[in-house]
Amino acid sequence: MKAKKSLGQNFLQDEGVINSIVKIIHPQVAEKIIEIGPGQGAITQYLQASGANLQLIELDTDLIPLLQQQFGQCDNVVIHHMDALKLKLEEGPYKVVGNLPYNISSPLLINMLYQFKQIKQMVFMLQKEVVQRICAEPGQKLFGRLSVMMQHRFDCSSHLDIPPTAFIPEPKVDSQIVQLIPKEKPTEVPLKNLELLVKQAFAMRRKTIRNNLKKIITDEQLQQAGIDPGQRPETINVSQYEQLAIMFKQDAD
Ligand code: SAM
Q1: Does ligand 1 come within 6 angstroms of the Cβ of 8?
Q2: Distance 39 CA to ligand 1 centre (A)
Q3: For ligand 1, is residue 38 a contact (CB within 6 Å)?
Q4: Which of 59, 193, 222, 232 could form a disulfide with 245 if both were Cys (CB 3.0 to 4.6 A apart)?
Q5: pTM over 0.70
């Protein structure tokens, strides 16, 4: 079957890489796992064999009959022909995993973040740069909106460097695996407030935080959070952004 670029189809062919992902997912009998974009079943076959309770979310109409043929008879597999961006998680907790289509990775991560209560682990293969953004620390060039949002709720770690040769067809970029585990004691902040705040904070990376937030946060509030108003947005840590999002609450509600 010809891979569809529009659906971000790069099928895994390297058994070593597939085994490494499955090892990180660590599937267990009867646990609830959702795989996004199973494709031709490269990872799915191992998840199915583990005895996990598996739900597959695939958008490509042409792949559905193939998946039905491979997994339709398995009691522990349910196949959903749908867009993962519309996924609503109920009755978790779930492990949510997949070699994600790179074109939807950021909106999908944010969609999952809003459903964090239903999630016990996420393991995704992504473009290396996106994994680096998620895991970046304050002061690093890639520290930005995605870092703050994901690190607010999850402990984030990067694993493996995967070259283009692990896929057919070969993508133009390197890939990595990211593991996201819900934090035991996250700071309680309305996510919408944090999302609006960081969007504004990183609107112009070269500007100071004072300039980027001047319509919604005062200098006094910045100082209250231990921030010098002359700092650049990428030098402010996640906990400081959380404090600002709490202050900004009334305006955002
Ligand atoms: N898991 C397979 C593998 O590792 O070989 C395929 C991975 S491929 C990078 C991404 C898969 O996601 C494709 O099967 C593609 O059709 C599917 N896909 C793309 N957009 C999707 C969406 N919005 N919702 C669900 N699946 C999607």
Answers
A1: yes
A2: 5
A3: yes
A4: 193
A5: yes
